[in-house]
């Protein structure tokens, strides 16, 4: 029994040691509080995140007064709302509580995700509270960046967006300079679309890329120089004038993978957290590249629009162009003549707004489907226009897309196929008549085949009867031969018997005559 107790004690000791080792090594911060909220113990991760030693945390008597928790809105969190106190007051577990940690030794706020779990004594009272938390500063920064990009992307124009982005990056990373460039028509020259310097947006500039760190970025790769960038690029005199020591830049690509610009952060201090900075830059770079590409696309679009109108107005087809909401953007002169309507009465309106009687409902449904799915469609549509005969149009809806593949509108091309449809109907009628004639011929042929089959069966029956008759004749002839042979044999035997009987008769006559003669001689 003593051995059993010792084994149990040793097992408990080993288990406790493994538990303590796990708590020390785990990458989650853990703080143990008593029933009054005082700190009893903490693991190294908690001490690292809070920036306090185990002695400072114990009992919380020596914590720096400048150290405090923050709410999500940035206001100071009262002690009564600390995670451990919330668990103690509510007697319920605390889940996914977000708080900021403001430390005197750091300029930025560190954000953590906190969970609290009460442990109860045998009497049902809380004996202690286990609070665990993880650093979500990087995730929070990414969420803020996503929110910024989402809001700025549709609320303001491209120019303001770049200025706002430069300011956001400058303040978020606390750097002296943020440069957002686009490549000039000359690939050796860059032009800034936003330039943030020392807390303010300054006028844009053009500069030569050669000999600058931006030249390497434009070479389609991320460039990070945590410190000493002036010594690495001695030809770039602006770096020295601006007092830049660290540099990180990321290229901006269009949808085809071609560099069209860059974002660069520069600071007079060394760069310490390159990984998180790179991650966030990669996030906003996509949106910035899209804006640069959109600017370029707009220029190209204006040129193409002119070319399109020139082509559309010279074609014999009916052409209508719709925007993303299905509103008419353009009609060519041919469609005005076909419909007998002026372009001014259609521009800016949707199909159902133009034709309130529902006569174009099928057409409108195809337009809706093409806009929604991006899949091209085609119908044959009888135009409800005033004319002696209906006009049949073959209409093709073609989805138009931007550089990102998003549907931006629909191009409808219609062609009068009335004459072709009439010819097709005539051919179809002739085909029906030919088919009917073919059916009649097929039925006659089937009738002849049926009669031929019956005749063949009759011939076969007659052949069988003839063969049976021949067999009967052969049998009769054989029987006649047999009977003839029998009769001949009978006749032969009869002749023999006749001769025998005749001979005997003659002898009897002679005998009778002799008897009579003898009788006469006897006295």
What does this entry look like structurally?
The chain has 523 residues and is of the alpha+beta class. Helices cover 50% and strands 23% of the residues. The chain is built from 14 helices and 18 strands. Strands 7, 8, 9, 10, 11, 12 and 13 form a 7-stranded antiparallel sheet that branches. β7 and β8 form a beta hairpin. α5 packs parallel to α10. It is elongated, with a radius of gyration of 56 Å. The model has no long low-confidence stretch (mean pLDDT 82).
Outline the fold blueprint.
Blueprint: H1 2-25, E1 29-34, E2 39-42, H2 44-50, H3 54-57, E3 68-70, H4 83-90, E4 94-102, E5 110-120, E6 126-135, H5 137-155, H6 158-173, E7 177-183, E8 189-197, E9 200-201, E10 206-208, H7 213-218, E11 223-225, H8 229-232, H9 237-242, E12 246-253, E13 259-267, H10 274-312, E14 318-323, E15 328-331, H11 333-339, H12 351-354, H13 361-373, E16 377-383, E17 391-401, E18 407-416, H14 418-521
Antiparallel strand pairs: 1-2, 1-6, 3-4, 4-5, 5-6, 7-8, 7-13, 8-9, 8-10, 11-12, 12-13, 14-15, 14-18, 16-17, 17-18
Helix pairs in contact: 5-6, 5-10, 6-10
